[in-house]
Write a structure and sequence with these properties.
By secondary structure, this protein is α/β, with parallel strands linked by helices. Helices cover 39% and strands 23% of the residues. The radius of gyration is 20 Å and the shape is globular. The N and C termini lie far apart (54 Å).
Length: 335
Amino acid sequence: MSLGDRLRREIEHDGPMPVARWMALCNAHYYATRDPLGVAGDFTTAPEISQMFGELVGVALGDAWVRAGSPEGVRLVELGPGRGTLMADLLRAARVSGLAPAVHFVETSPTLRAAQAERVPGATWHEALAQVPDDGPLLLVANEFFDALPVRQFVFAGEWRERCVGLEFAPVLGKPAPLLTIAPPGTIVETSPASTAIVAEIGARLRAQGGVALIIDYGYAGPATGDTLQAVRAHAFADPFVDPGEVDLTAHVDFSALGASAGVVSHGPVGQGAWLRALGIDARAAALKTRATGPQREAIHAATARLTGENAMGELFKVMALTGTGWPTPAGFAA
């Protein structure tokens, strides 16, 4: 039975399906059945654009570890590690500071686990963060992880109603929802209980064992309204309710909600461009260009502009850090 048939059967049995469940089921199928990255896939992430991105993440984590006193037994964790490209680049840079920890991937896709194994031999895989041993400080990175977690959507139509998906795979209004504010008709607000639950788990680990978590994603820094659910296929926008399980579904990340839910000190968010520049991306690009051919120098220049430009990823994408007790403010954030 196809995913579409399973979704239709559930809607027939239970009534309109909340957008959050639609998103969760569709993305679970999507990531389990393909490698979505690169030119031949549906989208490209920052680590795939340039090695500089992962290297600077490694510099930031290695620097924080050194300034925390270089504690032993560190667990280096990546949530949703893609092809393992970020981690491979991160490790190369982090080893300069003496950091060479055990690597743990939280990944459920067999296809992506195979790609990660090629790039990061010796890594350990887990279905969830709770399975990662909690016997040492946590250094965690989540790049474009939270945007793929399901969001609940609520629409004000005289009263708040949860946005759902009907039998024809189109948005419909579901049951009333207990939101207290009044808003103009048609206003949409989003929440992500899945995201806040995971960041609360990260915060609990940081409180207990110490460490740093870097969250890098596209989204906004404060309360906002509007429908941010989107679908991408073959590097172009698509309809989120057509071809379920065959498109990448994401929503903008509410960084204020993540920071408030972590229960530890949060830093930022700051724009990805400003963060990378503070960590030295321009100097790194210049160094790479000295050993590059003409076309390679042009590619390095283009990658830097794409990662940092205000009209590219530099402003839309943001970086937040969470720190455990006694750990320093990571590089790239104001003290």
